[in-house]
Structure formats: structure tokens, C-alpha cells
Amino acid sequence: MAIINHRLTAEQYEQNFSDIHPPFETHNAALVDANRCLFCYDAPCTKSCPTSINIPKFIKQITTDNIKGSAHTIFSSNIFGGGCSKVCPVEKLCEGACVYNLMEEEAIPIAKLQRYSTEKAIAQKWKLFERKPSIGKKVAIVGAGPAGLSCAHVLSREGIDVTVYEKESKGGGLMTYGIAAYKVTPQFCEEEVNYITSLGGIDIKYNQALGEQVTLDELRQNYDAVYLGFGVGLARQLEIPGENMEGVVDALQFIYNIRSKQYKEIPVGDKVAVIGLGMTAIDAATQAKRLGAKEVTIVYRRTEAEKPCTDVELDIAKLDGCNLLWLASPKEVIGKEGKVSQLVCSVMSLGEPDASGRRSPIDTGNTLTLEVDMVIKAAGQIPFEQLVTTHQINNNKGRVTIDSNCATNMEGVFAGGDCVNGGKEVVDAVQAGKDGAAAILEYLATNNTN
Predict the structure, then answer these.
(1) Which pLDDT value is given to residue 447?
(2) What is the pLDDT of residue 18?
(3) Fewer CB atoms inside 10 Å of the end CB: C or N, the chain?
């Protein structure tokens, strides 16, 4: 067993990481599904969308060949509507709420139709919004992810001059660096960011990390308001013996490398164990398999009934040939000459429900051992607690604390997205950015600072 790169041919990599949900090939193909929509009054699909996209309206616009109008309807509610059409867990949101499900018929492919309109807009650089003249107000945003850029777009449309400080060399946040490459490509993420900023009035300063190249005090002094949208990103550690051994990697870093390098450059083991069963764990497991791992086992301490990922995501892992080990929790990593060779797991049983409503795993005292040469940790993400405490921002175990107006304890400083909620969907971050922008506009109007 060995952790090596360049396991596959260029053709195999291309095939393995090609679009998992291909778009409509023709307008007529889109029309077939668009014309199935019942255009429900008080539509449940719209209600289930965190950004409240008027779904029946944009689908109706497709049926009347008004693709620009359709894209405008989508982007008016969700400026990341293109990316969200590729990565949203629509089975538990809009498509899951489609009334066709009650008829035991296939739901309208809302995401695919949304992708049809938004991809055309982005590819053809349709100018769907006009920015109001600058009113002389400046806002700083920390983080060029979905929350930050959603906030920036709303503010800029109202004539606010926005400067975004981003620690990475590219914008997009989780969309660019934290999602499986077969769902959305880095190239599309870059095009989407460029489309959002093409409105004007949004200046992104890259390689500028809060607490390193720039401080919150500096931002407060130089801008009329500040919005914090820096997300989460620290991997939760397993706290077990052998965790720091060669061959044990964080899922976030593993996915980051896949997103920022060529596939052939990413090393992967023969036999890989992935700890956890959230979306990040699924993305890590499936991509390890697609990089050429011979065997991938997902280790989860509960049963399938308690899984945090969706059925659709789990099916992807199963179709890719990933094994699932239920009721097992990592106990120790064993190695030879400092390199991983085995993962010892405690055999669990389920007790009473915990605070999340899921039954709690209980150690039975028995163990089992997996022969592995690579362990990928995907046991969750934790907030940047040191960052927020250093800047004297009120928080709850690292999560930034805000009031009903998205305001922190610091005058003129607002926050939203994953750095507040601890990590939700991209679409939730987009809505948080909109809420933050509305709060900032109200604040600027009330305070009328010079």
C-alpha cells in the first residue's frame, strides 16, 4: 500500500471529474420540463428556497423564451443562482417541496432549469442590473465567499462603494475551494465571481487575511461599516492517538488541493478511510475514489437513519464504489515507520437521542481494525475562535454573535453566514449576505456618517 499521485491517465481524470449533472443540451429539452410546471399559487418550492427565488416565474419566463428575464428573476433573489443550481441540496429544498412529489411523479428539475438560464447569463455576460450612482459611502467586507459577495452586490447596486478583503488568491469561498470538482469547476466559480463584480463598485483585495494583512480596527477607521463573512474552515480534530501520523489528512485540505491543483498532482492511498458522513465527507470519499484509490471506506458512528448527508449524496458515494462502515468510531491510528497502516475503531450502539434529535452513539467496548494507508478526517468544521476573540467580537464558542439586525457588539460591524451559524448551505450564506446588506443600508441611512 502507498500514497501516490498520478494513478490514472489524463482521460480517466477528465472522465471521473466531468459534470455529474449535465445541463440541458437544447432549448427544446429545457422547454419540455419547463412546460410541466404547474405554476403553483403560493408555490411551496419558492417557500422552501432560503433566498425566496420566484421559481414559477422564472420557469414561466423560460417557456416564453424570455431567458434574460428568467435569469434576472433568479439573480434578483440569489446572485449566486448559477453556482447554487449546481451545488444546492435541492432534494430537501425546492425540488423536495414540488407538488409532483405528492402525486408520486418526478419533481420539476428546478435546479437544472435554473442552471439553464443562469449559465447563459454568465457565459454571455448579460448586464441585468444597473448600479446607482455612488453616494460616497464605503463598506468593507471580510470574505469573498457567497455571504460576502451577496452582501457586496446588494450594497453596490444601491451606490455603496465596497471593498472586499479575501485571504485566498481567488474569490468564491467554499464554492471555489470546498466543493467536489465534479459538481462545479473552479473555472465556473471564477466566471461567476467575475460576473458578480462586473456590476462595478466592488473591489476585491486578494491575499488579505483578517488579523494578518488587515485588522478590524483599521477597517472600522477607514470605512462607514464592516461586514464579516469569513465563514468557518478549521477542521475538527479526532483527538485520538496517531492522529498526526503521516497519511492522516484533513478533508478540507484534501478538497482544497484538488480544487487548486491538477488532479494528477494529488496523492491518494490504495486503501482510504474517511471519518464522517456529512457533505464534506462524501466529497472527500468520492473524489479519493475518482483519483484512483482502490478501496474507500466511510466510517460513521451512527446508522444510516441518522446520517447528516442526503440520500442523493450517499447514492453518489455508493455508485462510486465507496464502502460504508456503520456504528464505528475511530479510536486509534496505528502506523509503521511513522506512516499509517491501520485504523482501530470502537464498535458503537445507539442510545437515547441527543440535542440534535439523533440517537447518541455509545461505545460497546469492542473494536475492529481496518487496514488502511490513508485516513481523511471529515468530522466537521469549527469556527475561527481565536480570530474573533482576538478582535474582541462577542461569540459563542467561536461563532460570531449578532442581533436581529445582523449587528455584532461592535458599532458599525455586521456579520453573517457560516461564521455566525457554524456552517450551512451556500444558499443560506447568500441570504445572510442579503440580510446583512439590508441592515447596513438601514444603519448608514440612520447614522448618515460622513
Answers:
(1) 85
(2) 92
(3) C
* pLDDT, position 108: 98
Query: What's the domain range around 102?
Result: 22-123
Does residue 315 sit within a domain? yes
Amino acid 353: pLDDT: 87
Residue 104, CA atoms < 13 Å, CB-side half-sphere: 0
CB 230 within 8 A of CB 212: no
Q: For the domain that residue 103 is a member of, what is the CATH number?
A: 1.10.1060.10
Q: Are 206 and 166 within 8 A, CB to CB?
A: yes
User: Distance between CA 223 and CA 238 in Å, rounded?
Assistant: 41
77-98 burial string, b = 16+ CB within 10 Å, else e?
bbbbbbbbbbbbbbeebbbbbb
Question: pLDDT tens digits for 100-118?
Answer: 999 999 999 999 999 999 9
- Structural domain contains residue 271: yes
- Which pLDDT belongs to residue 377? 97
**Are the CB atoms for 313 and 298 separated by under 8 Å?**
no
pTM: 0.94
d(CA 311, CA 116): 25
Looking at the DSSP assignment, which residues form a beta bridge with residue 399? Answer: 396
SS3 content of the chain, % helix, strand, coil (to 5): 40, 20, 40
On whether both 363 and 270 belong to a single domain, the answer is yes
Number of domains the chain is built from: 3
Is residue 12 in a domain? no
pLDDT value of position 175: 94
Q: Are 285 and 324 in contact (CB under 8 A)?
A: no
Tell me how long the chain is.
Answer: 450
158 class by beta-carbon count within 10 Å (0-12 exposed, 13-18 middle, 19+ buried) = middle
Helix (H) or strand (E) holding 359: strand 359-371
Q: Report residue 49: phi and psi, to 5°.
A: -85, 120
HSE of 248, CA atoms in CB hemisphere, 13 A: 24
Of 254, 272, 252, 274, nearest in space to 263 by CA: 254
Phi, psi for residue 442 in degrees, rounded to 5 = -65, -40
Task: Give the burial string for 212-239 (b: 16+ CB within 10 Å, else e).
Answer: eebebeebbeebbbbbbbbbbbbbeebe
Residues of the chain under the 70 pLDDT cut: 448-450
Judge whether 341 lies within some domain: yes
